[in-house]
Amino acid sequence: MKLDNIKWGIIGCGNVTEMKSGPAFQKTEHSSLVAVMRRNKEKAADYARRHGVPKWYDVADDLIHDPEVNAIYIATPPDTHASYAIQAMQAGKPVYVEKPMALNYAECQQMIEVSKETGMPLFVAYYRRTLPAFLKMKELVESGVIGTPLSVSITLVKSASEQDKNASDANWRVDPKAAGAGYFFDLASHQFDYLDFLFGPIAKVSGLAVNRAGLYEVEDTLAASFSLESGVVGTGLWSFVADESATKDDLEIIGTKGKINLPSFQHTDLLLTTAKGTLSFSFQNPVNISHNLIKQVVQSLRGEAECVSTGVSAARTNWVMEEIINDYYQS
Prior knowledge:
eight-stranded mixed beta sheet; globular; alpha/beta; 14 strands; Dihydrodipicolinate Reductase, domain 2; Rossmann fold; 2 domains
């Protein structure tokens, strides 16, 4: 399909849409935000007022069938991604959905099938594929400056938040019915999707997931090993309950002639190390961090360019994560 002007409606105008994504729909050429929806009507109305959005709803179906809305961004927790995306595509509207793509891989496959049946494009908000530091890492790998890529290692160690320490505080990110798993799904999804972008699909993966701190029912510490179709091998370590002194965020690519290090979530420098020494590269991200990807989505809907993050690519990440956590949830 091809649209001239994309008129967006947001389902789930919560925190993620305040700065990361929402304003970018207004700032992008040939794009506007015309309606928002949230089940809490007071919060929906407040969001619309603050962001200059003409219409708001408290029922998703009303937004989906608004004739002025011709594309839909779904920013709810993962448990409703598939149902809203399928409804929107069946209503003849392309979809841009938050990550992870859905609650599980089976739902991802359902979404892809409906996209094929309806001809409606399906995009997923893995915006690291468009950020300057991650594009630079890809450029360096492909230039051969570190030789043949051999291995990748992911480390993400965080301390528990005050919200997690207080069991009375509701947090959907550690509710498997809403999130699919714990923080691993929310955060590691970005990392695995980027590896898919950098090296291609992961072919084999195995992992272990445990709960060591007992702050919530889902996994809090995980380890994984994997190999990619390109031949690169990898390992990963994640913990979300460590002491502050142990926190670490690093993505390391090792090649036959050097290595590259870049944090996945901290916006600090990329480091390139070779026999010549270490070079540091600094980058400025967009004010609204999803802006570059949203531009691509708009360009794709206008028939001007291909978008790097689709339902097909994003579903692979859900498969990888499920392979790592499956034993924990089946035990």
